[in-house]
Fold these 2 entries.
Entry 1:
Amino acid sequence: MKITATKITDLSDAYLAIESTMRSGFTAKCSLDQLYRWEHSPSRTQLFWIHMMNIPTKVSVHLVRHAAVGQQHFVMSNRADRGGAGDNQVTRNSPVNHRMLLNAQHLIDMSRKRLCYQASKETRDVMLEIQKAVEGIDNDLANYMVPNCVYRGGYCCEPKPCGQYNIKRYDPTAITKKISIKDQESKIHRCKKHHKDFTGSICPECEDEDSDTLVAYHEGRENK
């Protein structure tokens, strides 16, 4: 197996895209790291050829599944009339050459699924090699090619966690409630109303709220 990566565009193409959306006089100054972290449309100006030689057919099939989001995949045929072994000889492990034309956002999204430990081991191995190849030409992008649990900040949404990472189960409703500033302010308001003369270290009526903000309020502001 051999995998190579070639970058077709550069940061100047992203600047052109950004400046096209702004009024005259604006000059884009972002870095590639910022471009990939933001994940807005200009990241899609960064185009790559990924060439994979002698990878298993089953891995090629896994990668082709991502083509629905605009990638272009070119896979060596196994048809007998095209020089291949033919239907009676080809298996899921038969080696093929596979070339992908895709952008930076495609690689970030593909990595989220194919670097996951619940992906096929062979596919994950190929994705790791793709990441290494990209690292050699765009280290900033390689840093953002991570499995989904890392991308989501420690939350796993797979049916069964892999056990390789210390993760939490993905629950968007609970996360939204936990990080909502408006919701936290509402909780503190209730504490102020119900516990004006509270002097303990943890409010017994709020200890089930699971909120560091509430504890900080009762230990700090309320006791002043």
Note: The two ends are 67 Å apart (CA to CA).
Entry 2:
Amino acid sequence: MTRYEASCGVGVLRGRLAWASCGIFAHRVRIARRRSVAVRLATPAAGRAYDRRVADLATLGAEITGCRRCARLVRCREAAADPPPKRFAGEVYWARPVPGFGDPAARLLVVGLAPGAHGGNRTGRVFTGDRSGDWLYAALHRAGFANQAASIRPGDGLALSGAYVSCVVRCAPPGNKPSPTERDRCVGYLVRELELLPRVRAIVALGGFAWDGVLLAATALGHAVPRPRPRFGHAAEARIGPWQVVASYHVSQQNTFTGRLTEPMLDRVFARAREASSAS
């Protein structure tokens, strides 16, 4: 029994029951159902389609959280909490794969590399509880996609409108470096999220790993990648299928503390993404 399972009192239950028992599943559904009211109420058919997306994303999220296909990643995500660093002493880590988060009617998808060992891997919500998340959600707030800048833990009141946040790899990898095999096993979840987010028109890829993951997912969905293959670079763009893909340096401390990525640079990326996401 993992520490997560013990804390929830569910023994060895996996998937949806384990997720719901700590209130995270219920919180995600409540937040999702409050968003995009205009979309849901436009017509009865639109409301039904929205509710199906909420349910389908929840089902996918439960499948993601139960995944144990990569033994190295399982060891890493669980070792991060055993024991946790002093600043998180006494906290019970999520220590499971982390699903996406946001608005099921999103027109913008933000894709990162993987959860942080003491961020998403601790809190159970992508880009939550670490400095990378502070930067990302503050930028989404400034761009009008988030109702607040702070992303501390599930249940903190954060809600996204018009945006959805995800990762290529769902477990915290050693040294923030997933292997190509781990990426290829996990990218199918991103493919399925794209299928379940049909309104998305813009994708922001945070870092070269996410950029390559988005191209892989697009190819898996049958969309032709331009030739020559688009190269990653900050503010680089590529038109792939129905999406305008916009690149940004990752919001990691390696980039934000050194000034390689600044708030104005990130704001320009999201301004461009908002413009692209508004296209028909």
Note: The radius of gyration is 18 Å.
